[in-house]
Amino acid sequence: MKPFKIIYSIISLMILAAVITGCDETVPLSVKTGEKDAPFTFIPEHGYPGTTVKIKGKDLSNVTKVAFGTKAVMAEDFSAKTDTVITLVVPVGAQTGRIVLEKEAVVLTSATDFTVDDSPKPTILEFTPAIVGSGESVTITGSFLNKVTKVEIGTLAATITEQNDEALTITTPAGLQTGKIKLYYNYMTSYGIEKEDVVISTADLTLKLPTINSIISGGKSIDATDCWLNIDDEVIINGTVLDKVTDVKFGGVAATIVSATSEVLTVKVPAGATKGKISLTVPDGTTESGIEFKVDLPTITSFVPGSGEPNSGTRIFSVQGERLSTVNAVKVGDTDGTIASKTDNVITFTVPGNISGNIILKAKNGDVQTTTPFYFKGTFWVSDWDNTYDPVRLTSLQINTADAGSVTTEAGGPTGNYAKLIGISKAAAGDNRFRAYIRADGNPGEDMFILYTSSPKGVYFSFDMSYNQLPAEVINADGSVDVNIFSFTSGDRNPYGFSKTITIPFTGANQWKSVKVHLNDMVEDTNLQDGVSPSTPTSNFLKPNKQRIMAIMFSKAPTTASPIEFNLDNVKFTIE
Fold this sequence. Notes:
Blueprint: H1 2-21, E1 41-43, E2 46-47, E3 52-56, E4 63-68, E5 71-74, E6 80-81, E7 85-89, E8 97-103, E9 106-116, E10 123-128, E11 131-132, E12 137-143, E13 148-153, E14 156-163, E15 167-171, E16 179-188, E17 194-207, E18 211-217, E19 220-221, E20 234-240, E21 247-250, E22 253-254, E23 256-260, E24 264-268, E25 275-282, E26 285-294, E27 299-304, E28 307-308, E29 314-322, E30 327-332, E31 335-336, E32 338-342, E33 346-352, E34 359-363, E35 366-369, E36 375-376, E37 378-383, E38 396-400, E39 402-413, E40 416-425, E41 435-439, E42 459-469, E43 481-489, E44 497-504, E45 513-518, E46 523-524, E47 547-554, E48 562-575
Parallel strand pairs: 2-9, 11-17, 28-36
Antiparallel strand pairs: 1-3, 3-7, 4-5, 4-8, 6-7, 8-9, 10-12, 12-15, 13-14, 13-16, 14-15, 16-17, 18-19, 18-20, 20-24, 21-22, 21-25, 23-24, 25-26, 27-29, 29-33, 30-31, 30-34, 32-33, 34-35, 37-48, 38-41, 39-40, 40-48, 41-47, 42-45, 42-48, 43-44, 43-47, 44-46
């Protein structure tokens, strides 16, 4: 029987050890239903003996003992106890490890360790309020808070206004953003040197911004299918912190505030608003609505025709879209059209056949226009020095970088009159190379060459050229001549220009050659140098309706100042 007694004693010891040290282990017949699903948490995660700790969970009212290693705090020594929270002080002799709770016949063990500090350090038990704005007070409770020397929220310094061992009151800084609270303190190392350290809150102090619970107009939520807003309609926003709102925008358009309380804000739909989200701005930041508004405006999905030849009659346009029945007037460019018919999805109208530009639909709540214009196809003459063209696309022809020079109209060219350009080329490369300027910048607006289209695809610049005299250094070994074709932009002049280098296959003087350059092949070139892509790739492209000057420049320069004489004819754009 002796071996059986030994085995029985070992099994008894194992059961006892399991009851004492196991996580959520219990005496089998005493386990309550669902007890293993009752975890608990604690704050702070560390502390020196004397630090206040809060344990949070459920069914805590029957806890009789809380142990920190081998040192326990009995229920009668708890600072406070409810069914969900136990407040107590870390006992002297506490050890780093899991916190153990005992209640009735149940032992519960924390999921993480509580770290016992080796010297008194500030701890954060909680802070109130948890949501604040700049310049507001926050009270932090914990232990050893009298040791705190400075406080930061995120990276911004807060102002300490009151301080004792268990509480610290601060004023939040200007520019506050949501972030952790940082408590800085000094401590003495074991080798007698004072050092600074920091304690960081586990939870964020949240920036107080407006909240939006609903946005109503005419008794309907603004995101309702049948809720269409009109300019100057009143919109009611329900939420919080609305009395602090200083700026309201509808899709980026500033609105007028009619009235405001902390929970209700009334604003008017501003002119220029179309659709999008509503933003509310307070001194500390901006809140954006989760739903979108829409103003009762027509929308354009397509239109025909997209291009055509100019004519002396009228042109019929058909525009497809939505809510087109709200349109009360139309324009193409600056010219009024005549509405022939309209439904919610289609509107037709006429304009003179010599008009091009963007289509503009006018409605009571504002204007909408096509993203691309109607443009003319065909030939757009600049000059052939024989005819006068309307509209005028050549306001002057000039020589640049010449010590002396002239531009004259001569007769007897292959197709009639032509322009002769005579000058002295400077002995310098780069921007001083000899060139001719074909200028349209005497015309108003940005579309100085009056081409109507913003896309370079299918748009060509062409001219005929011959020379009577060129410096030898300008001519290639096979007789050909390299020239740079430049386009200078109008408007904000950003980018400044575009270029393309071409070779004209001359074999000698007095030979007329035709040159044609696709504007889509021209690349950004702000230095007017080599007509190649810039070192940094760019997504910019030449916009024909934003040109002011076309320039023809010889790619090479002579080593000494030399006379140049060349001729131009039949300068034009074609759109194919």
